[in-house]
Amino acid sequence: MTTTTATHCPYCALQCAMNLTDDAGSVTVAGREFPTNRGGLCKKGWTSAELLSSPERILEPMLRQPDGSFAGATWDEALDLIAARLADGRAEHGADSVGVFGGGGLTNEKAYQLGKFARLALGTSRIDYNGRFCMSSAAAAGNRAFGLDRGLPFPVEDLDAASTILILGSNVAQTMPPFIGHLEGARSAGGLIVVDPRRTATARLTENGAGSHVQPTPGTDLVLLLGLINVVINEKLVDLDYIDRRTIGFDELRRSVGQWWPERVQAETGVPVRQLRDLARRLAAGGGTYILTGRGVEQHVDGTDTATAAINLSLILGLVGTSHSGYGTLTGQGNGQGGREHGQKCDQLPGYRKITDPAARAHVAGVWGVHPDSIPGAGIPAVELLASMGEPGGIRTLLVHGANVVVSAPNAERVRAGLAALDFLVVCDFFFSETAALADIVLPVTQWAEEDGTMTSLEGRVIRRRTAVTAPAGVRSELWIFHELARRLHAPSTFGTDPAEVFDELCRASAGGPADYSGLSYGLLDTGEAAYWPYPAGSTGTPRLFQDRFQHADGRARIHPVRARGADAPAQQGGILTLITGRLLEHYQSGAQTRRVPELAQARPEARLQLHPATAAQLGVVDGGWVDVTNARGVVRCRAEVTVDIRHDTVFLPFHFPGEQSANRLTADRTDPVSGMPEFKRTTVRVRALAGEERGAHV
Ligand SMILES: Nc1nc2c(c(=O)[nH]1)N[C@H]1C(S)=C(S)[C@@H](COP(=O)(O)OP(=O)(O)OC[C@H]3O[C@@H](n4cnc5c(=O)[nH]c(N)nc54)[C@H](O)[C@@H]3O)O[C@H]1N2
Ligand SMILES: Nc1nc2c(c(=O)[nH]1)N[C@H]1C(S)=C(S)[C@@H](COP(=O)(O)OP(=O)(O)OC[C@H]3O[C@@H](n4cnc5c(=O)[nH]c(N)nc54)[C@H](O)[C@@H]3O)O[C@H]1N2
Ligand code: SF4
Ligand SMILES: [Mo]
Fold first, then answer.
1. pLDDT tens track for 165-191
2. What is the distance in A from the centroid of ligand 1 to the CA of 679?
3. In the chain, what are the domains?
4. Residue 295 beta carbon below 6 angstroms from any ligand 2 atom
């Protein structure tokens, strides 16, 4: 029998729509018409169904044996053992010795249930998730300025009518390929501006009169933005009427940017004065202007302040909540948006409520049928949580759901050592990811096409994931796993296994919160209606936010002046280069999934270090030759890709690969003081060409 099911791609936040056709077990993917992707998919989407029947899939619970190998077990054996170890750990070392690490790829239902499970069944405050590595800086900036964090406060299609789009630190042409269709309007108006230290596929979209590429020194975007604000104010390009009616804080901003005159900005960023002025004028010219940020400017220790500066620029130009203009951040993971709303963040309860707010605690406790005092307080953010493994007072047991931290967390070798120091590690995954391979127990779970649920896309639109194929007999849904463990742990409240029922509960728990889903249900979503939150009961949702007011009590946006910190030691002195990290089209995140898709693995089998020909010549590096990339934390060994598409002082590594090619062996676990975001994008390294015999050992 052949069945076709309408669902969405498992990977990124664009959530491209697809039809999955199951013809007697052979599953094919076809793009489906939808506003974000208009029928298009990227290679990852096209090949996504291959993982359903991957020979590497785990098909029964796996228990580590005394000799270090894994052996299959029944679900009862595995769950009994986990429950017993969790109960013992809690009794012996306290509830906060148990940690939970979630992911932005989990459905809303799973993310919600994971947060509830941690607080009620484990009684721990120690829960956080990989979205801390992703959206935390932009989220903190949005909350601070607007009183609300929804990545794009407008539908993606609004961008079609823009004449100017400024993209700061995002390579959408490779990270969300169908998205570039929405840049066409700006390109034909000559107004696509891409800020990236590399000449990326996205930067190339500005060629032939379509716009301009600004190529600053990595990590200087905050100064660049302060310079733009300075020019906009000095050239009287601000929208004073808007500033007056809708914001607070402009005078302080004006004073704070006085020192960032264009020549000084040029000296720090390398961006010519002329280009800076042209850019400021273009942004103020009207005709539909949007400012978008990505991980390139947010994944820094000053990422919150940089995103805030981008918001300040948008506010003084009167772009936010007005027609045909806007500010937004491009959410990354499939459910990166919903995943940050329903309680897997350490300081959060469902509906984007604060766990420290007594009214929020009382509301959620009411839905859960527990006393508010039984909900633990705020925990600690991801980097700190991982750093506490094996430390006195830190976590001794960890449950991982939807993250591969050994590859994706900063200072990855320290994370590996921390995981090894745990008393007990449980990982739920489809595959032996590098993190699962270190676990005591691995529980195999259903993949996207085998489950129902909801995802909230980068535009804050809640969409349905639907079961298209039958899961292999030995795997289970995480909702079922939470239910079974909660039962064994005698947890209060209920842990439903039916996604629709869990969604209804989530909607009730979110009612009245900033991310209010209370008017939603599977029934409504299944009608195909576009559902943008906030969607309180009785409403029809909110495609466009901030049109009349911002979410602060007085309705005004906060212009929060931010200062640039002193620059670090300039790159290239004494052979020091700046390493930036990011993504390739073919691979997704830690690569745990896409490295197992033959077509993608063949296209990009390994990490390559991008460097400029002049730098390569100085170091004696040839294209395809082996290099060591080192700093105090570790060494990466890989081949070089010599390219003019990068600055002389900068090198680039993708972070999709494990072991000696893992970029996160080099990144530091310093974090942004506001958001807890680690510094992924700027690390100092030395590069050395390897001689024939050295490289021989590693080929
Ligand atoms: N193919 C693919 N697509 C993905 C993903 C994936 O892993 N692979 N992941 C998804 C997720 S979770 C996310 S978060 C998004 C991320 O999507 P993007 O933000 O587009 O991804 P990155 O490649 O991390 O970073 C974007 C760009 O930032 C630049 N950059 C680095 N440092 C700086 C800097 O200091 N200043 C500026 N201006 N730019 C800088 C890099 O050169 C890079 O081209 O992609 C999503 N889509
Ligand atoms: N150097 C550097 N490091 C980075 C970044 C960077 O730009 N540079 N970017 C950061 C960003 S933006 C992100 S989002 C993180 C992401 O990094 P990770 O958290 O490592 O992301 P994934 O590789 O997607 O890991 C998801 C894992 O969960 C599994 N999985 C997928 N869906 C489910 C599910 O529903 N349930 C369960 N139980 N498992 C599931 C997958 O098989 C995979 O093993 O990496 C961060 N790390
Ligand atoms: S752009 Fe993102 S959602 Fe669309 S097909 Fe590619 S990975 Fe999937
Ligand atoms: Mo991300």
1. 999 999 999 999 999 999 999 999 999
2. 13
3. 2-53 (2.20.25.90), 72-124+345-497 (3.40.50.740), 136-329 (3.40.228.10), 576-696 (2.40.40.20)
4. yes
